[in-house]
Specification:
The protein has ten helices and 15 strands. With 323 residues, it is an alpha/beta fold. Helix 2 crosses helix 3 and helix 2 packs across helix 9. The model has no long low-confidence stretch (mean pLDDT 94).
Length: 323
């Protein structure tokens, strides 16, 4: 099969598209003909050798646990009825950056009717994470919500949910094209946070109302500006650090302003038992049209290009590889 293999940590061009042996499903496993493979931002950091997330893999490695496709063979002990079924999983092995991947049958979801492979693979982790973040955020119709990285995979889904709920939504994204994209999602206000003075633009657009919730996927200086916009008594939920910078407000400032600060990803990673149920909820929400993922696709052979685009924040929505 063709796969994308990393032999040495470093830049995106270290990802090599080549022919490798087909994986063999073991007991309790199936082999999937991959139709779509999700690319996660943390994988770009792991590829670079940055120990800022999960443990770095042993090399050579094939990245990509997010896999959607068709079961084409089964291992010992697995019902042959799985063969031919469209499935999606967050636990593909050796990795989804390949034409074939194996996964434990217990980790599979049958694809909901009407959902494309690309949409399913976008929702199985990104959607699952969004569901968890929204559960933690507990948004209400009274909230004024500021979403950073609003044109990203999670950000776009948060904007959709908040608008459907009836909250007022301020979407912050980088560049005119991304700002246009979040306007199209129905945001009440959209702003380019690469422009100087964007925070003041938000303040003026709200006409005296204050931000009650910040949902931040960027961290760094943009998160600091968003924090400064937050009303006393508000809450700030973080779900990523796309800038690869850190933002840690002074605990005394948090206390004085009565602001609740929550690292949603830390809570979700610490609660793995809820992940399968959240995956099911996310897939169902997409199948029902309640949450519609945006997908930007690249051919599998161009995985290095996809990594470089994601790192430079030149992508919109979920990045998906197509074998």
């Amino acid at each position: 099969m063709h796969a994308v293999v990393l032999y040495t940590f470093g830049p995106a061009e270290n990802l090599r598209y080549e022919v490798v042996p087909d994986p063999v499903p073991g007991p309790g496993q199936v082999r999937i003909a991959v139709k779509a493979a999700g690319v996660h931002l943390i994988e770009t950091a792991m590829r670079a050798g940055l120990a800022i997330g999960p443990p770095l893999p042993e090399l050579p490695a094939i990245f990509g646990g997010e896999v959607a496709g068709t079961v084409e063979s089964v291992g010992p002990g697995v019902d042959a009825d799985w063969i031919g079924r469209d499935v999606v999983t967050s636990a593909g092995r050796p990795g989804g950056y390949a034409e074939l991947a194996v996964a434990d049958v217990a980790a599979l979801h049958r694809m909901p009717g009407g959902l494309s492979h690309e949409a399913a693979v976008a929702m199985v982790v990104t959607g699952r994470t969004t569901i968890g973040v929204l559960d933690i955020a507990g948004l209400t119709t009274d909230d004024v919500v500021l979403v950073t990285s609003a044109a990203g995979g999670i950000g776009r889904l948060i904007v959709q949910h908040a608008r459907r709920l009836g909250a007022k939504v301020v979407a912050a994204a980088g560049g005119p094209a991304k700002v246009a994209a979040v306007w199209d999602l129905g945001a009440d206000h959209a702003v380019d946070y690469n422009e100087p003075g964007w925070a003041e633009t938000v303040r003026e657009s709200l006409g005296g109302r204050e931000v009650t919730v910040v949902l931040d996927g960027v961290s760094g200086e943009k998160a600091r500006a968003a924090f400064d916009l937050l009303a006393d008594g508000g809450r700030m939920i973080t779900f990523g650090a796309a800038s690869r910078q850190e933002f840690h407000p002074d605990p005394e400032v948090l206390k004085a302003r009565d602001v609740t600060m929550i690292d949603a990803l830390a809570l979700l990673i610490g609660s793995p038992e809820v992940m399968p149920a959240d995956e099911t909820r996310a897939l169902a929400a997409a199948a029902e049209g309640a949450l519609v993922p945006a997908v930007q696709t690249f051919p599998l052979a161009q995985a290095a290009t996809a990594h470089a685009a994601l790192e430079s924040r030149a992508t919109t929505g979920k990045v998906v590889l197509l074998p």
